[in-house]
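Form 7-S
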Amino acid sequence: MRRLLSIGPSGVALLCGALVTLLRIRILLWVMPWNRIMAAAVGTLDVQSDRPAVNRLEWAVRAASRFVPQATCLTQALALQRLLARSGYHSSVQIGVRLADGRFAAHAWVEHETQSLLSNAGEVMQYVRFFSCPPSQPDLP
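Output:
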């Protein structure tokens, strides 16, 4: 309770928003096919004048994910991407794959302005990018 009081009303609101978004994404991942999840999970940009900083949104998702069962890297990445879009930030969910000791492994993270969120650069470099959501658009002449 003391921690909640120390982050202030805006921090509590941010944390609650992240928790609701994480729960929604987690439930979607359990019950819906992938193509419908992508349509429902990916947020559209909503430019706001008073928006939280990117690192605060990342913090809120990391903190709230401790209270959501099976809040995997994919759950967290989809939730963060949605929160970023709602706050007017462009971002994309990246999914990478690798073979580690002969075993397949996958990992999801978010990229915003060439910055990796929810994972550090060293961790991301271990994976070969397999999927990007939303797909990157080619530059037009």
